[in-house]
Amino acid sequence: MKTEKILVTNSIIEKMTSAKMADRKAMLDTASWMFNVVTSVGIILVNKALMAKYGFTFATTLTGLHFATTTLLTVVLRRLGYIQASHLPFSELLKFVLFANFSIVGMNVSLMWNSVGFYQIAKLSMIPVSCFLEVALDKVRYSRDTKLSIMVVLLGVAVCTVTDVSVNAKGFIAALVAVWSTSLQQYYVHYLQRNYSLGSFNLLGHTAPAQALSLLVVGPFLDYQLTGKKVYAYDYSFTSVSFIILSCTIAVGTNLSQFICIGRFTAVSFQVLGHMKTILVLILGFILFGKEGLNLHVILGMVVAVVGMVWYGNASAMPGGKERRSYSTLSNKSPKHGGSSESDDVDGKV
Known about the structure:
By secondary structure, the protein is mainly α. The chain has twelve helices and two strands. The protein has a two-stranded antiparallel ribbon. The protein is globular and about 80 Å long.
């Protein structure tokens, strides 16, 4: 009798502990996502003002400055002891930086060479590409509801954002490079954190300096090719410099929150939830810049997209909604890299 009571008590304690852990994870997931949303939307609005109002159209160079600022922060935190020493092979770092830089350059060139409509379609195609990478490389299996919810999200965002669509050969190639490099970069964030036990700040400490150096070297030349203007000849003013500093400051949070979110979720979930930022930007644009561009079909698209995102969250969290079929690849990783072990067949991240 006593043994039964002990077993019942232990069962209750385990359930309470499990519930507390689930609540804590949900709270941290929400906080991480809100951090990413606030910083991402903020930097879009600041950069829009910087480029449209003050004529600082040097997007690649600006991104290099973002990573330089991020590098400075990681150096300070390392000196203060908040970032511990960690290992990332140079070959892995090189692959990540190539993916990330091709993503940045590809997106800028795609926006320049394509219509806004085709640019948005290219961005939407990152979700199926990310799904393909998870299925092919991580052996992830999606339930029917998860697949349908993703399709609803794509439909809603497409209705919101896709207008005129025109395609040309060089624009299509630029979009292709942008989509695949961005999807690979986001997949690789999750891969490196999982296989080398790297926290978000640790990974930024490895990648930000390399990205800053490469983009600040290539950026001015590429921006000149894209805009016909030299960043060194720009008429800097106190206001424009203040906006650049503000953009760089927010970018630190954007870069960090991206790594945090992909580490806690997956690249596909990051892409799906990322379209919530598109909806917020449209709403904020309406609030700040007037009713232009907001009509019935845009509102309908927003509603459909939000329904799809809620459905995706529920469907992917259900048993069998999104799970790995095999961990054989992960379990064979050498323990010297500190790769985390995962013994269950179901991936806890969504």
